[in-house]
Amino acid sequence: MRITIKNEQLTAEIDTHGAELKSVKRGDREYMWCADPKFWGRTSPVLFPFVGAVADGKYRYEGKEYSMGQHGFARDMEFEVVEESDDKAIFILTSNEQTREKYPLDFKLTITYTLVADTVTIGWKVDNTGKKDLPFAIGAHPAFNCKLNSEGTLKGNSVILKTDRDVLTVRKFHDPLAANETYNLELGQNKAIEIDEHTFDNGAIILENSQVSGAAIADAEGKTFVEVMFDAPLLGIWSPSGKNAPFICIEPWYGRADAEGFSGELKDREWNQTLAPSGKFDVSYSIKFN
To answer: How far apart are the C-alpha atoms of 282 and 138, rounded to whole Å?
Structure first.
């Protein structure tokens, strides 16, 4: 079921399945990717309680091994709508028998969507409702429509980063795991990554250690049409390799895929968050639509 919220500038639709933002329109313009499975069958999944993949599809908790698919399970579960008004909607997912089979910990995940003028703010709150520490990751994966050029590629679009650096350190990615090496990425004019048909040949661009605090997408005329603002320690930038898909994802993360060769416990995963019993994790990010 889809929930619609709107104000004088924006109309947004959120699906209760995964509490996924499926549509944002300003006038007749649709900003969100339509989830065409030919390219990628999702629009803006919430990644929880894992971001990315675990090595060999398995992780370890208190000496026991569990299977886990990429990006966790929240994106494939039905959320409860607990509040709905003209410009705000709140969704909750609570641990249950089904989740404990995959992830033997107790939690409550609350996702809030709020419209203010030309901006959607997405809030994530994780409550540890159990008696043990709660290791988890959470991340965003919104895909934004982009125009292809006359040759049918993304060339001409750019991602403009909010950073005080001219050169960024990028974690190499050997799909579906992070590599144990990095490379330097030199930014162009206006702190831009100029996108072309080969930008994502090696998978997602992964920026760690809070190197950036925002990312905007600009079209071939240099006009910025969407801007993502966040305080997350990691950012992923992605579009499917070799498909000339007409969208780019800007992904703030509090977590990351396992590095190649990792075989430790869940609590030792790089970039995981940890909550003590009764602890709360409360963050948000915003998307501005021009």
So the answer is: 11
Neighbours of 34 (CB within 10 A): 15
Q: Quick one: pLDDT band at residue 126, thresholds 50, 70, 90?
A: very high
How far apart are the C-alpha atoms of 42 and 75, rounded to whole Å? 10
Going by C-alpha positions, the residue among 114, 258, 78 that lies closest to residue 178 is 258
Calculate the CA 187 to chain-centre distance: 22
Using CA atoms, how far apart are residues 29 and 8, in angstroms rounded to an integer?
14
CA distance 241 to 205: 12
* Cis upstream peptide for 176 (omega within 30°): yes
Torsion, CA 38, CA 178, CA 271, CA 163, rounded to 10: -80
Collapsed DSSP state (helix, strand, coil) of residue 8: coil
Question: pLDDT for 30-65, tens place per residue?
Answer: 999 999 999 999 999 999 999 999 999 999 999 999
Q: State the Cα angle at 27 between 21 and 32, rounded to 5°.
A: 30
CA dihedral over 39, 42, 46, 50, signed as positive or negative? negative
CA 147/CA 160 separation, integer angstroms: 16
Joined together, the tokens standing for residue 29 give: 């313009």
Would strands 158-162 and 192-194 be described as parallel, antiparallel, or unpaired? antiparallel
Residue labelled with tokens 């974690």: 171
DSSP state of 54: P
What would the pLDDT profile of 230-244 be if each residue is shown by its tens digit?
999 999 999 999 999
